[in-house]
Amino acid sequence: MKGTALLSALLLVAACGSAGEPADGPDVLRVLAGSEIKDLEPLLRRAESETGVRVRLTYTGTLDGAEQVASGRADGQQDAVWFSANRYLSLIDGAQARLSTQTKIMISPVVLGLKPAKASELGWDTKPVTWAGIAEAARQGRFSFGMTNPASSNSGFSALVGVAAALSDADGALSADQVSSVTPRLKEFFSAQRLTAGSSGWLADAYARDPRVDGMVNYESVLLGAREPLTIVYPADGVVSADYPLTLLASAPEGKKALYGKLADWLRTPAVQKEIMTGTHRRPIVAGVPPDPRFGSAQLIELPFPNRRSTADELIATYLNQVRVPAEAAFVLDTSGSMQGDRIAALRQALVALTGADTSASGAFSRFRNRESVTMMPFDDAPGSPVPFTVPERDPAPVLGEIRRFAEGLEAAGGTAIYDSLKAAYDRPVAPGHYGSIVLMTDGENTDGSDYAAFEAHYRSLPEERRHTPTFVVLFGESDAEEMRRVAELTGGAVFDARSTSLAEAFKEIRGYQ
C-alpha cells in the first residue's frame, strides 16, 4: 500500500463494488481483513459477476482485528475475516468459539530478500544458510534489512517467531523460558535492522526509497514483486508461512454462509488460483495447480509457533522493549485556537493512551516503548519549546507519567505555524542508531510563518541522512488534505485520516510505523 494513500486505510471500508452501494444486503459478504488482502480487490470485483457475491472489505491491523473477533465486537458487523494467518487469533481465549469454517486460499512464506550483489558477497545465492548464519552476519554488520513491526503486521510477527524459534533450536512450540534465553541472540540479529513499518506494502515502498538498506524480511510475494530484483534467501532451518484463511464467523446468518461457500469455492478453482499466483506472486494452495518456477524447488520447513498467547505477547514485548533498535519520535502538535474545546481534549486523550492508558493488547504494544526518545513540540503561531522525554529500559512508569501530565496540560490558543514548526522538528538531530520519525497533527491550514514551498526547499537542503526521517501526517478538523499529502510524499511518510475515526485511533496506528 502506498504511504501517501494510507489515509487510515487499515481502518476504513474498501468498496469492492460500485460507489454508493449499500454496505450490506443479501448479496454482500462483509469481511474484516488485513491490509495484505488489498491486492486482491480487482479479483474480488470480478467475483461479483461470476459468483453473485459482492465483497465488502474493512481493513484492520492484525492485533486489533483479532481483538474485535475474540471479544465479539465483530459479530453482527462482519460475516467473515480474512487475515494472512489466524495463528495469533487462535491463541486468544474464546476466539475459537467465534469462528466457523476456515478455507486456506494461498501461501506465502516470510523470508529474506537481498540485493543480488549483497547476496553474492555473502555467498547466500549459491549455498544454504540458516537463521543462525544470518544472525551472525547481522552481528558482524555485514548487511542491513527492513522488517515490519510484529505488533501491527503479520509479516513482522511471523519473522520474529521464525527467527526466535530457529535461534532457540525449539523442537516444539516456543515457551516463555525460550524467549528469555534467546533474547541476546535476537538482539544480535535485529542490530542489522534499519527500517521499520506498519505494513508489508509500505515497507516495500520505504525500502525502494532508501538505497542504504541491503534487503528486507517480508512475504515472498512482496519480495518477488519488488521494483528492483532481489535474491530471495530461504533459511534451511525453516520459515513461518502465511496461508490466508478466509474464515466464516460463527455468528454469520445462514444467507451469508452460502455467500461464503460460493466465494471460497471460486477462489480455490484452478483458474483463479493460477491468476492469484500470477498477479500477486503467492503460491497456490490447490494441489492441481503447478507452482511457478520463481518459487524455487526447495521444500519449505515450517518452524514451530507459540501455543500460548502469553508467550506470543512476551515475544512481541521483548522485541519492542529490549531487542529492536530504539525509536526517536517527534510529535509536532497543533495547539492553535481552533483546537479549543473537544479537539484539544481529543489530543490529550490520544497522547495519554500512548502512555499505557489503553489496556487492550494493541494499546499495550503501541505505548511509548522502553529506550524510546519522545519529543513533544506543540505549536500555535510559532513553534513552542521542545519538551524531550526518554523512556528508560527499566521501570518506565515514572517517565510515562511525566508524558501523561504533559499531555493533560496542553492548552489551545493562537495561530497556526505548521511549516516553521515542522522545519524545527527536522532541524533536531536524531541519535545515531535510532529510528527517527515525525508525527504532524493539525486541524487547520497554515496561517503564520513560512509556507509549504519554503519548507520543501529547506527539506531538500538537509543532509541525506536527515531526509530519511518520514513525517506521518494526521488529518483532523479542517486541515488541508492535499497539502498534507504533499508533506507525506515529500518526506516518505504517510497520511492518517482522523476525521472519520479518532485521533486516538490514528495515533495508535502510526505507532506501528515508528
UniProtKB/TrEMBL annotation:
Keyword Signal appears in the UniProt entry: yes
Keywords, in A-Z order: Signal
Signal peptide: 1-19
Natural source organism: Nonomuraea terrae
A Pfam family reported for this protein in Swiss-Prot or TrEMBL: VWA_2
Protein name (database record): VWA domain-containing protein
PROSITE patterns tied to this protein: PROKAR_LIPOPROTEIN, VWFA
Residue intervals of the VWFA domain: 328-514
Thylakoid among keywords: no
Protein origin, superkingdom: Bacteria
InterPro entries per the UniProt record, alphabetical: VWF_A (IPR002035), vWFA_dom_sf (IPR036465)
